[in-house]
From TrEMBL:
PROSITE patterns: MTTASE_N, MTTASE_RADICAL, RADICAL_SAM, TRAM. This is tRNA-2-methylthio-N(6)-dimethylallyladenosine synthase. Pfam families: Radical_SAM, UPF0004. Its cofactor is [4Fe-4S] cluster. Its main location: cytoplasm. NCBIfam families: miaB-methiolase, MiaB/RimO family radical SAM methylthiotransferase. [4Fe-4S] cluster 1 binds at C23, C61, C95.
Amino acid sequence: MSSSDRSRAVDLTRTYEVRTYGCQMNVHDSERLSGLLEDAGYVRAPDGSDGDADVVVFNTCAVRENADNRLYGNLGRLAPMKTKRPGMQIAVGGCLAQKDRDTIVKRAPWVDVVFGTHNIGKLPVLLERARVQEEAQVEIAESLEAFPSTLPTRRESAYAAWVSISVGCNNTCTFCIVPALRGKEKDRRTGDILAEIEALVGEGVSEITLLGQNVNAYGSDIGDREAFSKLLRACGTIEGLERVRFTSPHPRDFTDDVIAAMAETPNVMPQLHMPMQSGSDTVLKAMRRSYRQERFLGIIDKVRASIPHAAITTDIIVGFPGETEEDFEQTLHAVREARFAQAFTFQYSKRPGTPAATMEGQVPKEVVQARYERLVALQEEISWDENKKQVGRTLELMVAEGEGRKDGATHRLSGRAPDNRLVHFTKPDADVRPGDVVTVEITYAAPHHLLAEGAVLDVRRTRAGDAWEKRNAAEAAKPAGVMLGLPKIGAPEPLPVAAGSGCGCD
């Protein structure tokens, strides 16, 4: 290749960066956006590029009141970079794009593409159309065009994968705008889900997380109330699949057959994340949640009776409109009774377009803050007490990548226990890779993590670790410049469902 040819090769290399905000569904959608762009000929920009890419995609969330301020602030910072960099393109997708549509281009006219939650597969062709026509492309589908699992995917992990089993939500919680943006629940065929999982296991994945806006409502499309428990049991028959998790279920649909499937299927992990949102029956009714405190705590009791070592986590909103001190005390009571391993606590934030945003009795900010601090203090105490019960236990950990920020300085590695607790452990002499499994004894507990300070008792090299090693070797071998033409025009060829890899307001 001549020097001029090499120069053209570098010039034709188009890089991309995807910035993700919001729930697990958005994270998984971003894996698909990355896969689509790479399938169209783009190359992922190095970590830390901070907007220094040819295409920057924002995958947005509309859950928080200030979600739009965050987006427009980031878009504003990119505007001068785009002026200095001819050919640079900016795309905005996700829930905020679905909600605001034309508003985005009016407020940020330097944006090239706006797409919604139902047509993420159109991103490459919309970018090409914007480039050719030299004008912004806004395309928002009102319903799902194709199930996302038919799209190419660039998974962030070689050993663990999301598998989407449904999209959308049929609930009408007054604080949540997600159903309006992602539509009614649509379930995938069980056979397609299992085929995808088997394909992922064939690639070296050993842990999958079943993903849905309301994951345990799976089967509502076909009228089978036990479809989710049957799916969990079917996952137990897949050879090589070591760990199965799911997020996030809704208490309304959490039935005894699901608890039995969790307890009786060895590779379904002893972990449950089930959003409570409030412990007050009055507030739960105002939230339009279909259960009450007694029902919620009853589920917790049943899970613990069947799975004694289960770690149960939750989401709680503080300061919902109309919440009184008595209501808040009921939430504290429920937290004391449930003894969650962790709680993701949120101060109520108005979601524009939701009934709660215009309700009377909006709680003053200073009251919300004070209650929030009381709740966090209580949960920290409980989390620490629950973690102390792990000291002395021998656990199998799946070695994780990037979860221990201080691992380099402390000469430790990090991994996840079966119940998903984070454990930092002493680095063994043997070579250990993310995806491998180690056996350790827990020696110390903190509120948010555990330590195994002694020698590692056993190291098991796995196919998942092999997959991580293979991926890293392939990434390292990639040339710095790739000879690329213009991105392919038109929607990408659909992949077989088994070839792909499968929100937070529950």
